[in-house]
Every structure is written in C-alpha cells, then in structure tokens.
Amino acid sequence: MIIFFSGTGNSHFVADRLAELLDEGTPVELKGEMLYDPMKCRLNGLGEKRIIWVFPTYSWGVPPAISRFITEVNFTGVQAINHYMVTTCGDDIGQTADMWRKLINHRKWVAATAYSVTMPNTYVLMKGFDVDNRELADSKLADAPERIGEIADRIRNNVEGDLITKGAWPKIKTGIIYPYFKKFCMSPKHFKSNGRCTGCGKCTRSCPMDNISMENGRPKWHDRCALCLRCYHICPCDAVEYGKATKDKGQYFLK
Q: What is the pTM of this model?
C-alpha cells in the first residue's frame, strides 16, 4: 500500500511511479477529512506486503499534517509489516528520516528504509526561495525516474540502508529551523487573491485540506492550512498572493 500527500504534484508523481513499478495498486491520497481529522480515518493493512509513505519534505522535516495523520489514524493490520519513507525535496532533507522513524516507532510499527527523491523546488514564501528555472526543473524531472526505479528495486529486494540526501548541517536544519518554521511560518492568514482573480474556484476545489471557500466570488482562506501552496501554484491567473512573499515569484505545478 502506498499512502501519499502532495501539494504541487511532485510526491503524487513519485507515488504513481512506485505503484507501477511495485504493482501496489492505486495509491491512497491523503486529502480532505483524512488530513484535517485523521482520528476519523479507518485504514486496513491486512494482506498488504508493505506500507510506503510518500510526502514532500517541509523545511527539512515531516509535514505537520503527515505527522498528525501517522500519530492519530486508526490503521489496523500493519504492526508486523515494513513501513518505508519516500520523501521529495528540492535539494536535501536534513533529519527528516529520523523524524519519520520516531513517528512510526511511536505507533509500534516497523520502520524500514527511507529514501529521498530530488524534484523541482516549490517553496516560495521566504526571501531567497523560488521555483527552479525551467532548465533545472526539467533536469530534475528527467533524473527522477532512474532514482525512483532504484528505490523500487531496493524496496522489492529488501536492501538495507537508507538512500537519502541529508545535506549540510542536518541537525541545525531539522532541529532548529524546522521547529521555527512550524511555529511561525505556517499561518494561512497572509493568503489573499489579487485583482487578477476571476473567481474560477480552482483553488477551492483543489485544496487538500478543504481550507478555502468562495465568498462573493472570491476565495477565502480558513485556519487549517497545510501550507502546501497548491492554491498559489495551481492558479491559472497568478492571482493568489501570500503577503509580499510571493511578489515576482514563479509557479510550478506538475499534476
């Protein structure tokens, strides 16, 4: 079983490719009530060969929505089978694998190997952060299938050892920057639509947290945002803004 969360399509792409290579069936996408109220979610892993968690790296850590899901979901039949992590990242993941293992071990599940796949950058909400230029994004996408294939082979053959890109200063990135990001940089209150908004509602329909509603023909953000930035990247009119942070920033959406 493959369970995935994706904001701008990178992790969705990886989940689909892994499902094809490992004959895992249709991946389970985390969205809607499954994400914002995971205690109501019931999953059954009886008969599954393995559980593969696919998600993007958030500021060198596990996305808070995924941490909550793993912690609270009612998931039966998975205690004795291996769980794997496959995370997408723009560059490196710090100690994301360690964080994921703690979550899995806390449920008394079996945390096996962890993997990372470099994909195009999508985070644009801080100074110096933007989407990759087209050439770099295309290069990463071209390299991804080989990496995913290697991951599938290692999972299929039970190869031990992680295959991840920790990057420099992983303890500082995950131990200091991630908690700061989680506490101070995940508020949805700065989202707004500008004059280019046509009221098409695409942001509302696509939000994985059901966090956006249409009021008087314009989107309104509420308080359970996962900060996946899908609303920003998917807007066909470049009409979604996050304060001044998105000024002159690019968009990227894979699927």
A: 0.97
